[in-house]
Amino acid sequence: MMAQFLDIKAAHKNALLFYRMGDFYEMFFDDAVAAAEALDIALTKRGKHLGQDIPMCGVPVHSAEGYLLSLIRKGFRVAVCEQMENPAEAKKRGSKSVVHREVVRLVTPGTLTEEALLEARRHNFLCAYALVRDEAALAWADISTGEFHVMPLPPIRLGPELARLMPSEVIVPEGSEQELAETVTESGAALTPLGRAAFDSTGSERRLCDLFEVSSLDAFGQFSRPEISAMGAIVEYLEITQKGRLPLLRTPQREAQSRVMQIDAATRRNLELTHALNGGRSGSLLSAIDRTVTAAGARLLERRLSSPSRVLEVVQARLDSVEFAVQKTRITDLLRDDLRKVPDLDRAMSRLGLDRGGPRDLASIRNGLEQTLQIAARLDQAALPALLVHATKSLVGHDVLLDLLDQALIAEPPLLSRDGGFIAPGYDEELDEMRQLRDEGRGVIAQMQQEYATQTGISTLKIKHNNVLGYFVEVTSTHADKMLSAPLSETFKHRQTTANQVRFTTVPLSEMETKILNAGGRAVEIEKRLYESLKAAILDQADQIGAAARGLAEIDLATALSDLARAESWTRPTVDSSRKLDIRGGRHPVVELALRKQGGGPFIANDCSLADGSDGADIWLLTGPNMAGKSTFLRQNALIALLAQMGSYVPARKADIGMVSQLFSRVGASDDLARGRSTFMVEMVETAAILNQSDDHALVILDEIGRGTATYDGLSIAWATLEHLHDVNRCRALFATHYHELTSLAGKLPGVENATVAVKEFDGDVIFLHEVRKGAADRSYGVQVAKLAGLPDAVVARARVVLEALEKGEREGAKKATLIDDLPLFSAVPASPAPNPKTSKVEERLAQILPDELSPREALQLLYELKDTAQS
C-alpha cells in the first residue's frame, strides 16, 4: 500500500495527497506533517519506511469539504485519490492485492465547485495570462457558473484588471513567475505556473474547438493569438485538475477595455467599492447597495459595480429596466417574492456537469424552472424595456424538461444519489416494485400465503423463513399426500420433511425471495440509473437553462436597484457623452447608511458642478478643516458617477453625468513596507499613475497631495500637480488641500474654481456644517480639531500660542530663522500642567452617598434631588 502511495505522490509533488482508505482520507510523510499543523489535527504514525516511523494524519470523508476549504485558504493544493474498486474485487486478484486507486481531481483555489467551499454571492475566477511576442491577453473563467471571457491586455493593465476581477488563481507560463508574481499576489490570487506547451496558440485553438465541438472559433468572434493562447491554457489546466472531466463553460465572450470605465487598484481600494479598507465587505459600497435576493443577481451586481459601462446605449438600457421596476411597484414586489425562491441554477448545473452533483441539484433545476414560469407570467413583454424583454424570453420554453423533473422527483430529495429515495412513486414501475418488496416484503409474502392456501384448499398452509432454506411453504404431515400428488406437485416442489411438517417451495416463491433479498440494492441501482438519465436530460438543455439563469439575474438586479432607489430616495441620472458632471443634492450612500444605523443626524447633501470650459470649471479646489467632510464629498461624487454608469439610480436630487472614461482616486495613504515604500512614496506613485494616464474624460479626485513631506516641497508638488491636471490632462477633478496658497490659482487658471467646506466658530470651538460652498477657506482650524480629538488642554493652549506667533511672523514677513528664534519654543518656563477638572454639585453630592445604605424610597428621593440640582 505504501508503495502505491509513493507512486501516486510522485506524480503530484506540489499537492497534498488525500489518499482514500475506507471512510477516511489519509496523509503520510511530509503531507501529514503539513496538514496536521494547518488543520490542527492529531499527527500519528503508521509503520516504518527506511527504518523511520511514517507520520500519518487523516480526515473523515463525510466532512472532508471543511478541511479542504481550510487547506485551500492556507495556500495548499490537494490531490484527491479515490478507491476505484472495493476491497472484495481486489482480493480476487490475490489476498495481498492492493485496492486500485487514482487521483480523480486536483483541488485548487480557482477550480472549486462545491457549495460549501464557495461564497454564493461571489464569482470564483480562474485567470490565465498569455504573452505572445509584443502582445498579451487575459482570459478568465468561473467553472462554478460557466462564465468564460477574454480580452487583449498589455502588462501595464494586468494589475488593474486583476483588481477588478479579484480572481482566486492566476495561471502564467513557466519562466514568467518572477516577472508577474508581485502583480498577481497584490490581487490576492494564487500564482500557478504552467508549462509553455499549454500556452501554445495552435494547440490551444484545437483544445477550444474540441471543447465547444466546432471546427473553427470564428463563430465566437475574431480572437488574437494571445487571446486563444490564454483561453487554451485555462482549458488545459482544467483538463489537468479535473482529470479530463471538463466543466460546462459558455462560449467565450470577448471584452474590450474601451467599453468599461477604467479603475485602477488604488482607486478601487480608496473608494471601497467591493471591500472596505479592513478587507471585509461590511462598510463597502457593494454591501450598502446590495438588495438582490438571488446568488446570481448578487454576482451580477458585483460585476456591474466593478465594471461600469462606457457604452451609452448599454447604460440607458440598464437605467430603463430600473425605471420600469421603480414605476411598477406592485409587480416589482411580487417578482422579488418569486425570485427569493429561485435556487442557484448556474452552480447546480456546474456540479451536474462535473459529476459532483446530486438529487438536490436536480431539484434545484426543477424548482428554478418552475419559478421562471411564474416570473414570466407576471411580466407583460409588450410593456417591458428592451433589456427585460430579452431576459423574459429566456424564461420560457422549458416545459418538457420541467414536466419530466416534476414527474420524476420528490419534493425534498436527499443530498446524495447513493442514499436513494429521490424518485417519485409512480415514475418507474420496476422501482415501485422493488420498493414495495423492500419496505413491504412481509405483506407480499402474506399475500402469497393466502393465494397458496386458496389454491390448495389447505387453510393451515404457512410460508415461513429460516437461514438454511430461506422462504418455504409448510403444511402439516396430514396434508402431505395432497401436496405430493398431481396437480399440486407440479407447482410445489418438496424441500424437507420433519416429524410433523412437510416443507415445499415454488418457482415464484424462490424468485420472490431473491427479489426481496436484493430489493434494497436493486432499488438504489435503478435510482442511480434514473439519476443519470435525468442529469443527461438537464445537460442537454444546458444552454437554455444558462440563458434562463442570466435572465433571472437581470430581473433580480433591476428590481433590487429599484427597491434601493425607492427606499433611499435615489433618482435616475441623465447620462450622455459630454464632459459635464452636475450633481445636485448629492449624498454618500455608505456614510448616509452608517449615520442612520448609528442614530446620528441626517446626511448633509451637497452640489457639485464640473463642466466644459465654456460652461464652468473643470476642477474644484476644495479647502476647509479636517473632519469637515472634504474626503466624503470627493468620494461621494466619484461614487455617484460610477453608480450612474453601472446603470443604477443615484443618491442625489438630480445628476447629469458626462461619460467618465477613467476614475482615479488618491484619498488617504499608508506605507507599503514590504515593497520598501513610505507613505509619501505610495502617495507619489499613485499620483504619478494619475498624471500619466488621465484623459480628458477622466474624473480624478485628489486629497492632500504633498502632505507627506516638508511644507514647501509638498506645496510645490501640489501646485505643479494641479497645473498639470488643468493644462495637460484637461480632465475633471476635485482637488482637496490644506495649502491655502493654491487658492490663488483659481484666478490664474480659467478651469479652476475654489470651493470650501463651511464651518462655524463658537467660543473657540469649531462646528462642522458639512456644507460645500463656493469660495476659499481662510484657515484650517487644526488646533480646534485637535481639541475635539481630546488632546490635553495644556497642549491645545500651547499650540494656540505657537500658531499665533507663526501667523504673526508670516504677516510681518519675518525670515524663518528669526521667527523660530522669536518663538518661546525652548523657554525655561515649564509647560503648565493640565488643570484639575472642576467638580459639579451633582458630583459632590454623589461622593457623599453610600448606595448600600439607601432604602428604595430614599434612593428615589435622592434621584429627584440630583435632578433638581442638575437643572439649577
UniProtKB/TrEMBL annotation:
| SUPFAM superfamilies in the cross-refs | DNA repair protein MutS, domain I, DNA repair protein MutS, domain II, DNA repair protein MutS, domain III, P-loop containing nucleoside triphosphate hydrolases
A GO molecular-function term, please?
damaged DNA binding
Entry binding sites for ATP: G624, P625, N626, M627, A628, G629, K630, S631
Q: Which Pfam families match?
A: MutS_I (PF01624), MutS_II (PF05188), MutS_III (PF05192), MutS_IV (PF05190), MutS_V (PF00488)
An individual GO BP term? mismatch repair
Tell me the keywords, alphabetical order. Answer: ATP-binding, DNA damage, DNA repair, DNA-binding, Nucleotide-binding
Lineage: superkingdom: Bacteria
Q: Say if the entry is tagged with keyword Cell wall biogenesis/degradation.
A: no
What GO cellular-component annotations does this UniProt entry give?
cytosol
**InterPro entries per the UniProt record, alphabetical:** DNA_mismatch_repair_MutS, DNA_mismatch_repair_MutS-lik_N, DNA_mismatch_repair_MutS/MSH, DNA_mismatch_repair_MutS_C, DNA_mismatch_repair_MutS_clamp, DNA_mismatch_repair_MutS_core, DNA_mismatch_repair_MutS_N, DNA_mismatch_repair_MutS_sf
Name all DNA mismatch repair proteins mutS family domain ranges. Answer: 698-714
The UniProt entry's coiled-coil ranges are none
Family stated for the protein in its record: Belongs to the DNA mismatch repair MutS family.
What role does it play?
This protein is involved in the repair of mismatches in DNA. It is possible that it carries out the mismatch recognition step. This protein has a weak ATPase activity.
Q: What is this protein called?
A: DNA mismatch repair protein MutS
Recorded source organism is Thalassovita taeanensis
Q: Which gene encodes it?
A: mutS
